[in-house]
Amino acid sequence: MLSRMKGVSRRTFLAGLGASAVAGPFARLLAGAASPARAAAPPARAKRLLVLFSPNGTIHAHWRPTRTAGGGFELGAGSILEPLAAHRERLLVLDGLDFRNATNHEGGMAAMLTGGGGLQTESRGMSVDQVVKGAIGGSSRFPSLELGVQTSAWGGGVQTRMCYSGPGAFVTPDDDPRHVFDRLFGDVVGGDAAKLRARRKSVLDLVNGELVDLHGRLGRAEQLKLEAHLEALRDVEKGVLGELTACDAPAAPDVPAGSTYDNDRFPDLTRAQMRLAATALSCGLTKVVSLQMAHTIAPTVFTWEGLGDGHHSLSHSGDGDAHGVAGFVAAERWFAAQVAFMTELLLSYPDPDAPDGDGTLLDGTLVLWAKEMGDSRLHVCTSVPMVLIGPAGGALRPGRYLDLGGRSHSHLLVSVCQAFGIPMQTFGDPENGSGPLSELA
Predict the structure, then answer these.
(1) DSSP-assigned beta bridge partners for residue 98
(2) Which pLDDT value is given to residue 354?
(3) Is residue 221 exposed (0-12), middle (13-18) or buried (19+ Cβ within 10 Å)?
(4) Which pLDDT does position 236 carry in this prediction?
(5) Distance CA 431, CA 438 (A)
(6) Residue 285 contacts by C-beta under 8 Å, 6 or more apart in sequence?
(7) pLDDT at position 314, please?
(8) What does the alpha-carbon distance between residue 267 and residue 274 come to, in Å, rounded to a whole number?
């Protein structure tokens, strides 16, 4: 059994998630703790990029972490980022980043991932995901995968698009999970996913005996970790992807046809797209994914949070409007909870690239949660909130809250590129400055 668990190959993972694969992160616990040198050694560089977006800026007083003695930070009770508290040690919370030469919703949306600039710049007017795609995506079936949640009801324009293949050249996000599923797996399931799903049993049930055996051989602390790990996997399995018994034949999303722009379906659509993103990354179908949750000036009404006003309207609530501010904070906390859910998904999958079957999908995946504005009430693109989630190949040192004092966010985009071994020194308009954010390492 030990040999099977320690020898999980990428081919085995793709063929089916057996006990050895789903419990891969725990195999080393049976063989003894890893040596300090091995445990501390990060991979050479990031291997996958995931960009998440949520709209309409923030209210900094409710977003900023609280600094603690010794240089640490806390995500305060009731704060926007509190839903990410369980992953605090994996976060790099970035404050004080400015978009140069960009104002208002539209300007921020266009500059967020591009840094501005034209065809003659080092990044050639592309967004950072598309630059990274050019470096690492060529061998994947999908060099990049652009997903959205209710992103195209207003058509394609500077308000609704964040990815660019060149100056003004939008890369349209697919905001229909059913269509995304067909693109990813339609040639495998042949349109008969329901019958296929009915013939399959849960992978966790099929290998229950092995898992029980593994559980009994671990100490109590490790048992609790394994139980949490398997619970996360079962949540994925029972969700919109149904049985995740094999990467080449998952179940279709359980999202009704015609519901793509149903306001109250926003949470279901978001989770469906996140599960598809995680599956595509874990199966090696792509190495670059962007997920755009709505768009700037989004009118989404968070009815599931008991709110009656649209997100954009709430984002303009003044400090004297306690009810409006509370509503906006509740909506922003919901977005933070989705980022936490995405992080947990990445932690629940084995790393398909690990030669010994060790680690999780988050290992080697650089996650960027981006916004297009700072304080939306002022229509400014200064002090725009950004969060990186790692670890990712030694490219960043997580577990910190950094105030970057008005630095151009183009430096962050350079840092993202350099994390993938792309030797860029500027991103977007070169007048924004050159070099990475040295503070991240």
Answers:
(1) 408
(2) 79
(3) exposed
(4) 39
(5) 18
(6) 140, 141, 142, 145, 184, 247, 279
(7) 97
(8) 11
The predicted structure's pLDDT at residue 186: 79
Contact 287, 281 (CB under 8 A): yes
Domain with CATH 3.40.720.10 in the chain: 45-175+260-440
What is the per-residue pLDDT for 252?
87
CA dist 27 and 48 (Å) reads: 24
Mean pLDDT by 10 residues, the chain (441 residues): 33 38 41 37 73 98 92 94 96 97 94 95 97 94 97 95 96 97 78 44 51 69 58 43 48 89 97 96 95 97 98 97 98 98 94 80 95 95 96 77 97 96 96 95 86
Maximum pairwise Cα distance, the chain: 63
Beta bridge partners of 396: none
3-state secondary structure of 97: strand
Cα–Cα distances (Å) from 59 to 17, 62, 137, 231, in that order, read: 43, 6, 36, 35
Cis peptide before 391 (omega within 30 of 0): yes
Residues 44, 297 contacting (CB under 8 angstroms)? no
Predicted confidence at residue 144, as pLDDT, reads 97
Buried b (16+ CB within 10 A) or exposed e, 178-215: bebbbbbbeeebeeebeebbeebebbbebbeebbeebe
Q: Are 356 and 6 in contact (CB under 8 A)?
A: yes
Question: pTM to 2 decimals?
Answer: 0.79
Tokens linked to 194: 């329901």
CA distance linking residue 2 with residue 20, whole number of Å: 9
Which alpha helices (H) appear in 239-363, and where do they start and end?
A: 266-282, 311-315, 322-348
CA 206 to centroid of chain Cα atoms: 30
Instruction: Report the Cα 316 to chain-centroid distance in Å.
Output: 26
> How far apart are the C-alpha atoms of 151 and 290, rounded to whole Å?
13
Cβ atoms of 429 and 410 within 8 Å: the answer is yes
Catalogue the E-assigned strands of 103-192: 145-149, 164-166, 169-170
Expressed in angstroms, the distance from the first to the final Cα of the chain is 39
For residues 59 and 365, give the distance between their C-alpha atoms in angstroms, rounded to a whole number: 28
Q: What is the CATH number that goes with domain 45-175+260-440?
A: 3.40.720.10
**In this structure, how many other beta carbons lie within 10 angstroms of the beta carbon of residue 306?**
8
Burial label, 395 (beta-carbon count in 10 A; 0-12, 13-18, 19+): buried
